[in-house]
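Page 37, top half.
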Amino acid sequence: MPRPLWAGAISFGLVTIPVKIVSATEDHDVHFHRVHLADLGRVRTRKVCELDDQVVSQDEIGKGYEIAKDQTVPVTDEELEQMPLPTAKAIEIAAFVDAGTIDPVRISDSYYLAADGQVAAKPYTLLRKALERSSKVAVAKFAWHGRERLGLLRIREGAIVLHSMKWPDEVRDPQELAPREVEVGEDEIEQALQLAERMTIEDLSGFHDEYREALEDILAAKAEGKPLPTPADDRKQDKGEVVDLMAALNASVKAAKESRGDDTEDATVHEMRPAKKTARKTPAKKTATSKTAAAKKTPGKKAASKRRSAS
């Protein structure tokens, strides 16, 4: 069990559930030190007071809020902890909503809530079962790192998960980023849907961090004095190149089909043409008919040739 980050209680009406918060994720990134390139010595960050130009230690550093220019008031951790908030040491459930109504953009970090002691086992299980049977999620408020936050409680494999959320006014309006309205054909939409169907999977456990693996290979090669791994020949499409959307979709569907080893007949990719062009298939039938007629006349010509030879 990882080290708890916070201890308090879930407030569910008149029910109190003592819990501890632990991180639900782990950091597997490769971290670098800042070094002096001349001798590879570590470069440290020194905290200097801009008024007296003196280096200050961590125990001399506190919080301050700038009210106006050249006017700052100090704020202590004790003052923040003693604020009259009902959520200071509680995760207060305020409402229950359908999971589908929550915009994923608002979801931030994730934490597991562990029952704190045997006394918490029964109310913890009660809340878990209530969330599971209702297929809903709980919206809660809690204090975290000196501020009140909005949270989301849901169930994951028998454990209660707390997602910190952005407040509604913290999410930017995406309207100004949307592209101008363009016309998309129904055949293009159908091909996109077919591509999405081909790429649909049920388990994400197969994904892994290829960047980190490549970086670890480079670090291992440098440590052993070996040549660095050569990059794969990945000729990316020029950004200035105009893309035939239908051709790209057809090629993508075909590649997705081949990657999954799907050779069924219904998976065949057919080129989609406008209705007017379909009428051009008729001359092809006439050509085949004329060829057949010519083939029938051929024996007659051969017979006449034989008669001339006999005479």
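Page 37, bottom half:
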Amino acid sequence: MRYIIIGAGAIGATIGGRLADSGSEVVLVARGAHQEALRADGLRLTTADGERVHRLPVVGGPGELGELRSDDVLLLTVKTQDAIAALDAWGDAEVAGGGTAAQRLPVLCAQNGVESERLALRRFARVYGVCVWLPATFLEPGTVSALCAPLTGILHIGRAAGGPADGKARRIAADLEKAGFEAPVVDDVMRWKYAKLLGNLGNAIQATTGPEPEPAKGALLLRAIREGKAVYAAAGISFASEAEQSAARDGKVDQPAGVRGGSSWQSLARGTGSVEADYLNGEITLLGRLHGVATPVNDTLRHAANIFAREGLPPGAMSIEDLTALADEALARA
């Protein structure tokens, strides 16, 4: 199988580089300065095993590859706000032997949140969800680090629509495990992704107030998580318990001290102009509005993170006291 990594940022480049290390064929998809750096100097990937430079094929879109192959696997790792454009571009690509990628090829949504699977299922016949536990850092073009050990990450894989896993998922999982990941194949991958979403509600807190841990940040995150669990209950959504998550991860993906902030903080640091907040905190707000549950904390976090992105504010420029005050004001209005 050939893996086409659509969005070779922190997650995509790490998975792509590790797959290439273990002998899989990999193509990276990137744009802008990152694409230029990857083409000129290769992917500089640092893991717990050390630094490696991977010189892999790099493209900006499907037109540069010509007809896709019947054994291609599309790994979607762009941020959710960029998913529609990527799915449309790659879904329309022709595959050797007839048909399009959307009709014939598998697409794996290895992203935060739960919206990309729904977007992909509107377009692709074969959609898999991937619950990503892979702390990684991408701040400079061409350079990514993922320092967890003993495994680089854990990637639960399953059919996005649910149901028993198929042979394709198991073959992909085998390649990922050969590459230094644990890749459990599950019948209920979205249950794992909804659990992961609760933790990602803190991305907006990191982005706006900085990644350094503080009791007040933890307290605000707990309020956001309580809202998330309340809307899950109202919507009848199940999610993996904290005990299940701990059993799956503990001792397998330990991070060294001093690792930088999460994905939204990194997006602001790179000046991308957008963050995922609409699909993280915004997912909780959406569910709350659909099921009559107030979500003032998550709506505040979503709004604040988006302002930082649109106005180009530096990550961490707001105090946690000011952010908490905004959440309290929203609660009083709810």
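Margin note: The CA atoms of residues 296 and 331 lie 5 Å apart.
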